[in-house]
Specification:
The protein is an alpha+beta fold and 670 residues long. It has a domain at 51-70 and 413-668: Alpha/Beta hydrolase fold, catalytic domain (Rossmann fold).
């Protein structure tokens, strides 16, 4: 867990308004098509009436199906965790109770002690340098407006720092003397994030910055016990573009450093030289590379990682500026590398056999310990703590695989399919053993990831194991717009450019039907996904009707215009940079909205949504379901009243996954 906030996590809403009924909206379209949507306003459970929640409440599941899903959900790993400053105790998150909570172990593989409880998801954000308290984040029913809390490392009731309705409060940093907490919140302006310092003793907060924009603390230099800090403030200006500023706490002076001239993807931290930055960017090539950046009239960038035909996907420098850890993304396989922070010479890391994914967790503030996560194709993540001083590797917590034969888990193969223009689209494929040498084709489920600036990767996949166990071939493509394949691939779907590549969705099914036949019989093919994957599913079932035999859309957008109009104020400009402007790009957004093609849908569709979703308003699901009902098209909507952007509670996860698999079993099997 990084000590610095990841801006990708700033995705929650700030306020709700009312759902306004059933008026139909039309907008001009080429070819006499119309953008048909039931107009709504706002998001969250308050935007729905009780009758709607009751009508679309999740049905129960068959007991046998429930048991099978729960068995796979029991295959899990505790979080990578945070070590106490003395290296004697670890604190970590774990969802074994059904909801993510915080646990403590007093030594490697000791018996864990539960620190927090209840039904609200709780996350571990930081531990004080004196080892006396934790900083925790707690959400309410998926709203993604979490509050910040303190808890003694010995265990105690939580002490609230800030938790306000409709406000997202995000942790950034604990001062060296353990007296102050720094955090961000959009409580001054719902469209912006202010930066605060909270005094633990007096319980008072002080506003450091309240300028308009999505601000966050990207890094901070050790103060050497001077009491005055130098911060690196970041400001998100688009889905990936960032600006960076030096902030002097004593004077309050804010100095621009990087990204102000034009929008560009930058991720930055202070170097070991306080006058330099470490910057991860694809500015000079197709792939992200790590550079030293010296601020000046010309702003000189000097590469410190090798030139590779793949991305450096992330990096972290420890607090004392001793070592740099960075991750290389090789087509969905992650490798970890280390450098000396002053000389930039490589440093050896432990080696792990048969690892698909290796990534770094947190580093203790003294720089001695780092947590590492390792995932193979057929086993859940295993986590370790590496001691740089002794070079000892210790496994503190153990993954669990109860009542299952781990040897029967199936790994993925990396394959590809051709798009209409000949571009090869990578995809990971999990094949059920029972599909080999079968006399007829197995049904296929194609799962499109969210984001869209995300990536399906190798490693252990619980959802894939469930589908394989149920007799399906399971596929995860990385269509154009996905991360991990270079700048041109990532930006290929920005704004109206998405019109040229959205057919990647249908091309997957075309390839599968043609090339995965058995005895001249085509397989039946389903489509599913969460968030942007849910949107992809709706496009696959509407604009590309007939490509897929059934679809399950989870928390997906049905109309890009109403989505952009109703998502959170601070999210809107960041999402506009990805999807397009509702005014300037209106015609493209209409052409890219599933609701536009509602009359073309041919095959059964299941829609699943959380009422409290702060990213994709619940109205997106309700409006397309009502349009389908008006046309008597086979469809079903399930709304979880106590969930947000996907289900967090175990009981709801069972229902969400169970109904998805049951739906495909019903509609894809011969």
């Amino acid at each position: 867990m990084s000590r610095i906030l990841s801006i990708a996590l700033i995705t929650a809403i700030t306020s709700f308004t009312s759902f306004v009924g059933v008026a139909v909206m039309f907008a001009a379209m080429p070819n006499n098509q119309s953008n048909q949507a039931i107009a709504y306003e706002g998001l969250g459970r308050e935007s729905l009436d009780a009758a709607t929640l009751e009508k679309y409440a999740p049905p129960s599941l068959d007991a046998q199906a429930t048991k099978q899903i729960e068995s796979i959900l029991d295959v899990r790993s505790p979080g990578l965790g945070l070590l106490s400053p003395d290296g004697e105790t670890m604190f970590f998150s774990w969802s074994i109770t059904g909801t993510r909570q915080i646990w403590r172990i007093d030594g490697p593989q000791s018996f864990p002690v539960q620190m927090t409880g209840g039904q609200d998801s709780t996350a571990l954000r930081g531990i004080s340098p004196d080892g006396k308290f934790l900083v925790l984040s707690r959400d309410r029913q998926g709203q993604e407006n979490p509050g910040l809390y303190l808890q003694s490392t010995n265990g105690s009731p939580l002490e609230v720092i800030q938790h306000d309705d409709g406000v997202r409060t995000s942790f950034a940093f604990i001062s060296d003397d353990s007296r102050s907490i720094y955090y961000m919140a959009n409580d001054v302006d719902p469209a912006s994030f202010a930066i605060y310092r909270y005094d633990i003793a007096t319980k008072q907060k002080e506003l450091l910055l309240s300028e308009p924009g999505v601000w966050y603390i990207a890094d901070v230099l050790p103060d050497g016990n001077t009491g005055s800090k130098t911060f690196l403030f970041g400001k998100a200006t688009g889905s990936l573009s960032r600006e960076y500023y030096r902030y002097d706490e004593a004077s309050g002076k804010l100095t621009p450093l990087l990204g102000q001239e034009q929008p560009e993807e930058f991720v930055a931290q202070f170097s070991a030289n306080p006058d330099e930055l470490l910057v991860l960017t694809p500015k000079f090539d197709q792939f992200r590379r790590l550079y030293r950046y010296t601020n000046g009239d010309d702003g000189e960038f000097t590469p410190i990682t090798p030139e590779l035909p793949m991305d450096v996907s992330s990096f972290e420098i420890d607090y004392l500026r001793q070592r740099i850890i960075y991750t290389v993304n090789d087509r969905g396989y992650l490798k970890l590398q280390a450098l000396d922070a002053k000389t930039f010479e490589p440093i050896a890391l432990p080696e792990f056999a048969n690892a698909d994914l290796i990534y770094a967790g947190s580093t203790t503030r003294n720089g001695r310990y780092i947590s590492l996560g390792v995932s193979t194709a057929t086993a859940p993540r295993t986590s370790y703590v590496y001691d740089w001083q002794t070079q000892n590797l210790t496994q503190w917590v153990l993954p669990s695989v109860p009542e299952l034969d781990q040897s029967k888990f199936v790994g993925a193969t990396l394959e590809s399919y051709p798009a209409q223009d000949g571009t090869e689209i990578p995809m990971f494929v999990w094949r059920s053993p029972q599909c080999q040498n079968a006399s007829e084709p197995c049904p296929v489920v194609v799962h499109f990831h969210g984001g869209p600036e995300a990536q399906s990767t190798a490693g252990f996949n619980r959802l894939a194991q469930l589908f394989v166990q149920a007799g399906f071939i399971y596929v995860e493509p990385n269509v154009r717009g996905s991360d991990g394949y270079g700048k041109a691939w990532l930006s290929a779907d920005d704004g109206p450019k998405r019109l040229a590549v959205i057919s990647d969705i249908a091309d997957a099914s075309t390839y599968i039907r043609t090339n995965w036949q058995v005895n001249d019989m085509e397989p039946k093919v389903g489509i599913m996904g969460w968030s942007y994957g849910g949107y992809s599913t709706l496009m696959g079932m509407t604009k590309f009707a007939g490509s897929y035999d059934a679809g399950v859309a989870l928390v997906g957008m049905s109309n890009l215009i109403t989505f952009l109009e109703n998502t959170a104020e601070f999210r809107r400009p960041l999402r506009i940079s990805e999807y397009g402007d509702p005014e300037r790009d209106r015609q493209a957004l209409i052409q890219l909205s599933p609701i536009t093609y509602i009359d073309q849908i041919q095959d059964p569709l299941l829609i699943i949504q959380g009422a409290n979703d702060p990213r994709v308003p619940v109205g997106e699901a309700v409006q397309i379901q009502r349009a389908l009902e008006e046309r008597e098209i086979p469809s079903q909507l399930i709304i979880f009243a106590d969930e947000g952007h996907g289900s967090a509670k175990r009981s709801n996860q069972v229902l969400e996954i169970g109904h998805t698999i049951d739906f495909f079993v019903e509609h894809l099997n011969p």
